[in-house]
Amino acid sequence: MPKTRVLYIDDDDALARLVQKKLGRLGFVVEHASSPEQALTRLEEGGFDVLALDHYLGAGTGLEFLARLATRGAGPPAVYVTGSSEMSVAVAALKAGASDFVPKTIGDDFIALLASALDQAVAKARLVAEKEAAEAQVRAARDRAELLLAEVNHRVANSLAMVSALVNLQANVLTDKGAKDALAETQARIFAIASVHKRLYTSGSVGIVELDGYLGGLLENLGGSMRGQGHGANLISDLAPLTLGIDATINLGVIVTELVTNAFKYAYPDKSGDVRVLLREDSPGRALLTVEDDGVGNAGKVIKGTGLGTRIIKAMARSIDADVVYHARDPGTAVVLSFALPQ
What we know:
This protein is α/β, with parallel strands linked by helices. Helices cover about 55% and strands about 20% of the residues.
Protein backbone atom coordinates (compact mmCIF):
# COMPACT_ATOMS: atom_id res chain seq x y z
CA MET A 1 0.00 0.00 0.00
CA PRO A 2 1.52 3.40 -0.97
CA LYS A 3 2.56 5.66 1.87
CA THR A 4 0.56 8.78 2.67
CA ARG A 5 2.32 11.92 1.44
CA VAL A 6 1.97 14.87 3.83
CA LEU A 7 2.80 18.54 3.30
CA TYR A 8 3.53 19.97 6.77
CA ILE A 9 3.32 23.80 6.86
CA ASP A 10 4.96 25.44 9.89
CA ASP A 11 7.47 28.26 10.35
CA ASP A 12 9.06 26.38 13.29
CA ASP A 13 11.81 24.42 11.54
CA ALA A 14 12.84 22.49 14.65
CA LEU A 15 9.31 21.23 15.32
CA ALA A 16 8.86 20.47 11.64
CA ARG A 17 11.97 18.21 11.66
CA LEU A 18 10.65 16.43 14.75
CA VAL A 19 7.23 15.89 13.08
CA GLN A 20 8.94 14.62 9.92
CA LYS A 21 10.99 12.14 11.91
CA LYS A 22 8.20 10.79 14.09
CA LEU A 23 5.56 10.63 11.36
CA GLY A 24 8.12 8.96 9.12
CA ARG A 25 8.42 6.13 11.66
CA LEU A 26 4.65 5.70 11.40
CA GLY A 27 4.78 5.24 7.64
CA PHE A 28 4.13 8.78 6.43
CA VAL A 29 6.22 10.64 3.87
CA VAL A 30 6.41 14.22 5.15
CA GLU A 31 7.67 17.28 3.31
CA HIS A 32 8.07 20.59 5.13
CA ALA A 33 7.09 24.03 3.84
CA SER A 34 8.13 26.92 6.08
CA SER A 35 5.95 29.62 4.50
CA PRO A 36 2.56 29.90 2.79
CA GLU A 37 4.22 30.84 -0.51
CA GLN A 38 6.49 27.79 -0.44
CA ALA A 39 3.47 25.63 0.44
CA LEU A 40 1.44 26.97 -2.47
CA THR A 41 4.32 26.29 -4.85
CA ARG A 42 4.60 22.68 -3.68
CA LEU A 43 0.82 22.19 -3.86
CA GLU A 44 0.89 23.42 -7.46
CA GLU A 45 3.43 20.68 -8.22
CA GLY A 46 1.04 18.15 -6.70
CA GLY A 47 1.66 14.71 -5.26
CA PHE A 48 0.28 15.23 -1.74
CA ASP A 49 -2.55 13.28 -0.11
CA VAL A 50 -3.07 15.61 2.84
CA LEU A 51 -1.60 18.74 4.38
CA ALA A 52 -1.15 19.83 7.98
CA LEU A 53 -0.71 23.49 8.81
CA ASP A 54 0.01 25.47 11.91
CA HIS A 55 -2.14 28.39 13.03
CA TYR A 56 0.77 30.85 13.25
CA LEU A 57 2.80 31.02 10.05
CA GLY A 58 4.97 34.07 10.64
CA ALA A 59 3.66 36.27 7.81
CA GLY A 60 0.07 35.22 8.40
CA THR A 61 -2.16 32.57 9.87
CA GLY A 62 -3.37 29.19 8.80
CA LEU A 63 -6.89 30.61 8.49
CA GLU A 64 -5.68 33.06 5.87
CA PHE A 65 -3.93 30.21 4.06
CA LEU A 66 -7.14 28.14 4.04
CA ALA A 67 -8.97 31.11 2.54
CA ARG A 68 -6.37 31.30 -0.24
CA LEU A 69 -6.71 27.57 -0.85
CA ALA A 70 -10.49 27.88 -1.17
CA THR A 71 -10.08 30.24 -4.13
CA ARG A 72 -7.87 27.73 -5.96
CA GLY A 73 -10.45 24.95 -6.21
CA ALA A 74 -10.21 21.36 -5.07
CA GLY A 75 -7.06 20.22 -3.28
CA PRO A 76 -5.92 17.76 -0.63
CA PRO A 77 -7.70 17.80 2.74
CA ALA A 78 -6.20 19.90 5.52
CA VAL A 79 -5.62 19.16 9.20
CA TYR A 80 -5.29 22.31 11.32
CA VAL A 81 -2.67 22.37 14.07
CA THR A 82 -3.02 25.00 16.75
CA GLY A 83 -1.45 25.71 20.11
CA SER A 84 -4.18 28.19 20.95
CA SER A 85 -6.43 27.25 23.82
CA GLU A 86 -9.34 29.10 22.25
CA MET A 87 -11.87 26.77 20.67
CA SER A 88 -12.94 29.64 18.40
CA VAL A 89 -9.75 29.12 16.37
CA ALA A 90 -10.51 25.45 15.81
CA VAL A 91 -14.14 26.23 14.91
CA ALA A 92 -13.01 28.91 12.47
CA ALA A 93 -10.59 26.47 10.87
CA LEU A 94 -13.33 23.88 10.35
CA LYS A 95 -15.60 26.54 8.87
CA ALA A 96 -12.78 27.60 6.56
CA GLY A 97 -12.52 24.09 5.14
CA ALA A 98 -10.21 22.14 7.41
CA SER A 99 -11.07 18.47 7.70
CA ASP A 100 -10.00 18.25 11.35
CA PHE A 101 -7.89 20.01 13.95
CA VAL A 102 -5.26 18.85 16.44
CA PRO A 103 -4.11 20.79 19.54
CA LYS A 104 -0.35 21.30 19.49
CA THR A 105 1.34 19.99 22.64
CA ILE A 106 4.86 18.97 23.66
CA GLY A 107 3.87 15.44 24.57
CA ASP A 108 3.97 12.27 22.48
CA ASP A 109 0.20 12.30 22.23
CA PHE A 110 0.46 15.19 19.73
CA ILE A 111 2.10 12.98 17.10
CA ALA A 112 -0.39 10.18 17.72
CA LEU A 113 -3.34 12.55 17.41
CA LEU A 114 -1.85 14.16 14.31
CA ALA A 115 -1.25 10.78 12.64
CA SER A 116 -4.81 9.70 13.41
CA ALA A 117 -6.25 12.97 12.08
CA LEU A 118 -4.18 12.68 8.88
CA ASP A 119 -5.36 9.11 8.29
CA GLN A 120 -8.97 10.08 8.88
CA ALA A 121 -8.73 13.12 6.61
CA VAL A 122 -7.34 10.99 3.77
CA ALA A 123 -9.98 8.32 4.31
CA LYS A 124 -12.76 10.92 4.37
CA ALA A 125 -11.46 12.57 1.21
CA ARG A 126 -11.29 9.18 -0.51
CA LEU A 127 -14.90 8.42 0.49
CA VAL A 128 -16.06 11.82 -0.76
CA ALA A 129 -14.28 11.27 -4.07
CA GLU A 130 -15.79 7.80 -4.44
CA LYS A 131 -19.24 9.17 -3.59
CA GLU A 132 -18.92 11.94 -6.17
CA ALA A 133 -17.72 9.43 -8.78
CA ALA A 134 -20.65 7.12 -8.01
CA GLU A 135 -23.10 10.02 -8.23
CA ALA A 136 -21.56 11.05 -11.55
CA GLN A 137 -22.05 7.51 -12.85
CA VAL A 138 -25.66 7.50 -11.66
CA ARG A 139 -26.28 10.85 -13.38
CA ALA A 140 -24.68 9.57 -16.58
CA ALA A 141 -26.78 6.40 -16.46
CA ARG A 142 -29.92 8.44 -15.81
CA ASP A 143 -29.11 10.75 -18.73
CA ARG A 144 -28.59 7.75 -21.01
CA ALA A 145 -31.89 6.24 -19.84
CA GLU A 146 -33.75 9.51 -20.39
CA LEU A 147 -32.20 9.84 -23.85
CA LEU A 148 -33.21 6.27 -24.68
CA LEU A 149 -36.74 6.84 -23.38
CA ALA A 150 -37.05 10.02 -25.42
CA GLU A 151 -35.99 8.08 -28.51
CA VAL A 152 -38.54 5.36 -27.71
CA ASN A 153 -41.30 7.95 -27.33
CA HIS A 154 -40.21 9.56 -30.58
CA ARG A 155 -40.37 6.25 -32.44
CA VAL A 156 -43.74 5.32 -30.90
CA ALA A 157 -45.20 8.71 -31.83
CA ASN A 158 -43.89 8.37 -35.40
CA SER A 159 -45.23 4.83 -35.70
CA LEU A 160 -48.66 5.87 -34.47
CA ALA A 161 -48.64 8.83 -36.87
CA MET A 162 -47.98 6.39 -39.69
CA VAL A 163 -50.86 4.17 -38.53
CA SER A 164 -53.11 7.24 -38.39
CA ALA A 165 -52.10 8.19 -41.92
CA LEU A 166 -52.91 4.67 -43.17
CA VAL A 167 -56.32 4.84 -41.49
CA ASN A 168 -56.92 8.19 -43.19
CA LEU A 169 -55.95 6.75 -46.58
CA GLN A 170 -58.36 3.88 -46.05
CA ALA A 171 -61.15 6.29 -45.07
CA ASN A 172 -60.59 8.33 -48.23
CA VAL A 173 -61.37 5.37 -50.52
CA LEU A 174 -64.59 4.46 -48.70
CA THR A 175 -68.01 5.70 -49.77
CA ASP A 176 -70.05 4.41 -46.83
CA LYS A 177 -70.54 7.28 -44.35
CA GLY A 178 -70.81 4.96 -41.35
CA ALA A 179 -67.51 3.30 -42.19
CA LYS A 180 -65.81 6.66 -42.79
CA ASP A 181 -67.07 7.98 -39.42
CA ALA A 182 -65.86 4.84 -37.64
CA LEU A 183 -62.37 5.24 -39.12
CA ALA A 184 -62.36 8.95 -38.21
CA GLU A 185 -63.11 8.04 -34.59
CA THR A 186 -60.35 5.43 -34.67
CA GLN A 187 -57.97 8.04 -36.03
CA ALA A 188 -58.88 10.42 -33.18
CA ARG A 189 -58.16 7.70 -30.61
CA ILE A 190 -54.78 7.01 -32.21
CA PHE A 191 -53.97 10.73 -32.11
CA ALA A 192 -54.85 10.89 -28.39
CA ILE A 193 -52.27 8.17 -27.66
CA ALA A 194 -49.62 9.47 -30.05
CA SER A 195 -49.86 12.98 -28.58
CA VAL A 196 -48.73 11.73 -25.17
CA HIS A 197 -45.52 10.25 -26.60
CA LYS A 198 -44.92 13.33 -28.74
CA ARG A 199 -45.19 15.65 -25.73
CA LEU A 200 -42.81 13.45 -23.73
CA TYR A 201 -39.99 13.54 -26.26
CA THR A 202 -40.46 17.23 -27.13
CA SER A 203 -40.73 18.45 -23.52
CA GLY A 204 -37.83 16.39 -22.13
CA SER A 205 -40.05 15.18 -19.30
CA VAL A 206 -39.76 11.58 -18.15
CA GLY A 207 -42.89 9.86 -16.93
CA ILE A 208 -44.94 13.01 -16.20
CA VAL A 209 -47.26 14.84 -18.62
CA GLU A 210 -48.49 18.42 -18.20
CA LEU A 211 -52.22 17.98 -18.73
CA ASP A 212 -53.05 21.55 -19.74
CA GLY A 213 -50.59 21.46 -22.62
CA TYR A 214 -51.45 17.91 -23.67
CA LEU A 215 -55.24 18.30 -23.52
CA GLY A 216 -55.03 21.73 -25.16
CA GLY A 217 -53.25 20.25 -28.18
CA LEU A 218 -55.56 17.24 -28.25
CA LEU A 219 -58.70 19.42 -28.19
CA GLU A 220 -57.38 21.73 -30.89
CA ASN A 221 -56.81 18.77 -33.21
CA LEU A 222 -60.11 17.15 -32.27
CA GLY A 223 -62.10 20.33 -32.83
CA GLY A 224 -60.58 20.84 -36.27
CA SER A 225 -61.27 17.22 -37.19
CA MET A 226 -64.90 17.35 -36.09
CA ARG A 227 -65.54 20.62 -37.88
CA GLY A 228 -63.97 19.09 -40.97
CA GLN A 229 -66.61 16.36 -40.76
CA GLY A 230 -69.38 18.97 -40.77
CA HIS A 231 -70.03 19.30 -37.03
CA GLY A 232 -70.33 22.95 -36.09
CA ALA A 233 -69.98 23.05 -32.31
CA ASN A 234 -67.63 25.57 -30.68
CA LEU A 235 -65.01 23.96 -28.41
CA ILE A 236 -64.03 25.88 -25.25
CA SER A 237 -61.50 24.72 -22.65
CA ASP A 238 -60.36 25.86 -19.23
CA LEU A 239 -57.51 23.63 -18.10
CA ALA A 240 -55.67 23.87 -14.79
CA PRO A 241 -51.89 23.22 -14.83
CA LEU A 242 -51.97 19.69 -13.41
CA THR A 243 -49.69 16.74 -14.15
CA LEU A 244 -50.30 13.01 -14.55
CA GLY A 245 -48.33 9.85 -15.29
CA ILE A 246 -47.94 8.47 -18.81
CA ASP A 247 -50.38 5.55 -18.64
CA ALA A 248 -53.06 7.54 -16.84
CA THR A 249 -52.69 10.40 -19.33
CA ILE A 250 -53.19 8.05 -22.28
CA ASN A 251 -56.37 6.70 -20.73
CA LEU A 252 -57.57 10.21 -19.88
CA GLY A 253 -56.85 11.40 -23.42
CA VAL A 254 -58.90 8.60 -24.95
CA ILE A 255 -61.78 9.35 -22.55
CA VAL A 256 -61.73 13.05 -23.47
CA THR A 257 -61.67 12.12 -27.16
CA GLU A 258 -64.76 9.93 -26.77
CA LEU A 259 -66.71 12.47 -24.70
CA VAL A 260 -65.93 15.43 -26.96
CA THR A 261 -66.65 13.41 -30.10
CA ASN A 262 -70.04 12.36 -28.70
CA ALA A 263 -70.86 15.96 -27.78
CA PHE A 264 -69.99 17.20 -31.26
CA LYS A 265 -72.02 14.46 -32.93
CA TYR A 266 -75.16 14.33 -30.79
CA ALA A 267 -75.55 17.48 -28.63
CA TYR A 268 -76.52 19.82 -31.45
CA PRO A 269 -78.32 17.89 -34.21
CA ASP A 270 -79.78 20.95 -35.91
CA LYS A 271 -77.85 23.94 -34.59
CA SER A 272 -74.47 25.05 -33.29
CA GLY A 273 -73.46 25.46 -29.67
CA ASP A 274 -70.65 25.23 -27.14
CA VAL A 275 -68.81 22.15 -25.92
CA ARG A 276 -66.80 22.95 -22.79
CA VAL A 277 -63.90 20.95 -21.34
CA LEU A 278 -62.93 21.94 -17.79
CA LEU A 279 -60.07 20.60 -15.71
CA ARG A 280 -59.45 21.59 -12.09
CA GLU A 281 -58.09 20.23 -8.84
CA ASP A 282 -61.03 19.13 -6.72
CA SER A 283 -59.21 18.36 -3.48
CA PRO A 284 -55.63 17.49 -2.53
CA GLY A 285 -54.67 14.50 -4.65
CA ARG A 286 -57.79 14.47 -6.86
CA ALA A 287 -58.93 16.27 -10.01
CA LEU A 288 -62.21 16.79 -11.85
CA LEU A 289 -62.55 16.75 -15.63
CA THR A 290 -65.88 17.95 -16.97
CA VAL A 291 -67.17 17.79 -20.55
CA GLU A 292 -70.46 19.63 -20.89
CA ASP A 293 -72.76 21.09 -23.52
CA ASP A 294 -76.02 23.03 -23.81
CA GLY A 295 -77.54 20.66 -26.31
CA VAL A 296 -80.52 18.33 -26.41
CA GLY A 297 -79.35 16.15 -23.51
CA ASN A 298 -79.67 12.38 -23.22
CA ALA A 299 -81.73 11.83 -20.07
CA GLY A 300 -83.95 8.79 -20.58
CA LYS A 301 -82.88 8.36 -24.19
CA VAL A 302 -81.34 5.37 -25.89
CA ILE A 303 -77.60 5.76 -26.45
CA LYS A 304 -76.90 6.61 -30.04
CA GLY A 305 -74.24 4.92 -32.13
CA THR A 306 -72.74 1.49 -31.53
CA GLY A 307 -72.07 1.98 -27.85
CA LEU A 308 -68.36 1.33 -28.42
CA GLY A 309 -67.43 4.78 -27.14
CA THR A 310 -69.30 4.19 -23.89
CA ARG A 311 -67.55 0.86 -23.38
CA ILE A 312 -64.18 2.49 -24.06
CA ILE A 313 -64.89 5.23 -21.51
CA LYS A 314 -65.85 2.70 -18.84
CA ALA A 315 -62.78 0.54 -19.51
CA MET A 316 -60.37 3.47 -19.49
CA ALA A 317 -61.94 4.92 -16.33
CA ARG A 318 -61.56 1.59 -14.53
CA SER A 319 -57.90 1.41 -15.50
CA ILE A 320 -57.15 4.70 -13.73
CA ASP A 321 -59.61 4.08 -10.87
CA ALA A 322 -61.76 7.03 -11.93
CA ASP A 323 -65.42 7.72 -11.33
CA VAL A 324 -67.62 8.82 -14.26
CA VAL A 325 -70.95 10.52 -13.53
CA TYR A 326 -73.45 11.76 -16.12
CA HIS A 327 -75.54 14.80 -15.15
CA ALA A 328 -78.62 16.08 -16.97
CA ARG A 329 -78.43 19.85 -17.41
CA ASP A 330 -81.15 22.23 -18.47
CA PRO A 331 -80.32 22.31 -21.27
CA GLY A 332 -77.63 19.80 -22.14
CA THR A 333 -75.48 17.18 -20.52
CA ALA A 334 -72.39 17.19 -18.28
CA VAL A 335 -70.04 14.26 -17.80
CA VAL A 336 -67.78 14.55 -14.76
CA LEU A 337 -64.69 12.37 -14.36
CA SER A 338 -63.00 12.26 -10.93
CA PHE A 339 -59.49 10.81 -10.85
CA ALA A 340 -56.42 10.68 -8.63
CA LEU A 341 -53.35 12.86 -9.15
CA PRO A 342 -49.80 11.62 -8.51
CA GLN A 343 -48.60 12.28 -4.97
